[in-house]
Amino acid sequence: MPKTPEEWLAHTDPEKMRGTLKLFLGYAPGVGKTYSMLSEAIRRKERGEDIVVGIVETHGRARTAELVEKMEVIPRRQIEYRGVPFDEMDLDAILARRPQIVLVDELAHTNIEGSRNAKRWQDVQELLQAKIDVLSTINVQHIETVAPTVQRVTGVEIRETVPDWVIQQADEVVMADLTPEALQERMRRGDIYPVARVERSLSNFFRRGNLIALRELALQHVSKAVDKTLTSYMDAHHIRDNWAVRERVLVCISANPRARYLIARGARLAEAVEGELYVLHVEGDRELDEESRRALENNVQFAANLKAQVVRVTAKSVPLAAAQLVREKRITQVIFGRSQIKGLRKYFYYYAIQRFLSDVPTVDVHIVTQPEKDEDDDE
């Protein structure tokens, strides 16, 4: 169908509905988030883009301060709290200036009492709504759902967090990365904190084991962001092929207690290929009896204990529901159970498998014979 004049206009001059958010993610102070953000800002300024510094914390680092001096900086707003003056980002001044792009360091920062918003990420939301693009920084420990894990690993209380939905809203996530060894060396040189704090920091938060764990968490988060970007691209371009850039194992289960065997097989396979594990149950029109419901909940709990992502849908066709999930999640391997069935039921089983295969892109299918009786029966 040819485009209408309105569609051509929207294609050539689309109205910007909101600003874009680009995050520079790190796993610890000193990995270079702010420096990377400023370096990009200077490159974009040299290309003629209208870009300003809303707020950047240099923490006394000379190289960072040198980059800030090359940028237009919006003066900070002074707020008095309990008789003490504090400098905060001047949101109103930025909105009045209306730059194309603004730099907002330390997204998780808590604003001083008396500010318009309690959190800096809320200030960023206003900037985005005003159609101003934002470059910002955050460490992985400040992501709300990651903070408890970091606190458990490092023993350090995380007081400031950003909701996951704010991070997921980012149009682009870039990881500022250093090896733990290189970061510790920067620490010893006094490039991150004053020399007087070095030894204490290296024996606490900056211990090598902590840094390795934090880096792993940050890499996982960036991987998810990249995966989201790939999914958006494939959806936008109507790509139905399964681009197997990451292994994902799907186990299709029923309310049969023996489905635990399939889930365990799927978990071992996912671990072997370093992939994600999904477990699917398709609920039909018929009500399950009490025993079946209990068995299903046990299966679901077993899957959750193995860190599987459990998906429960209501549909008339199990193979078509499974095929839809394969497309949505870009599953690479699927496990179906098989029991010793005969007659017409055997025909329907193979028909269902064939129907599934005809509706999905390239995917590996494993037909796993379930044990004749539940393993618990032997006890």
In short:
Helices cover 43% and strands 18% of the residues.
Please explain how this structure is put together.
43% of the residues lie in helices and 18% in strands. The protein has helices spanning 5-12, 33-46, 62-68, 91-97, 120-129, 147-154, 164-168, 180-189, 195-202, 208-236, 259-272, 290-305, 318-329, 343-358, and strands spanning 21-26, 51-55, 72-73, 77-81, 84-88, 101-104, 133-139, 172-175, 248-253, 276-283, 309-314, 333-338, 364-369. It is built from 14 helices and 13 strands. The protein has 379 residues and is α/β, with parallel strands linked by helices. The protein is elongated and about 80 Å long.
Notable characteristics:
single chain, 379 residues, alpha/beta, 6-stranded parallel sheet, 5-stranded parallel sheet, 13 strands, 43% helix, disordered C terminus
Biggest pleated-sheet summary: 6 strands, parallel
Please state the structural category.
Answer: alpha/beta
Instruction: Give the termini distance in whole angstroms.
Output: 66 Å
State the order of secondary-structure elements, H for helix, E for strand: HEHEHEEEHEHEHHEHHHEHEHEHEHE
The overall pLDDT, averaged over residues, is 84
- The outline comes out as elongated
Given the structure, what is the number of helices? 14
What does the radius of gyration come to?
A: 26 Å
Strand order of the largest sheet: 3-2-6-7-1-8
Assembly category: single chain
Q: In percent, how much strand structure appears in the residues?
A: 15-25%
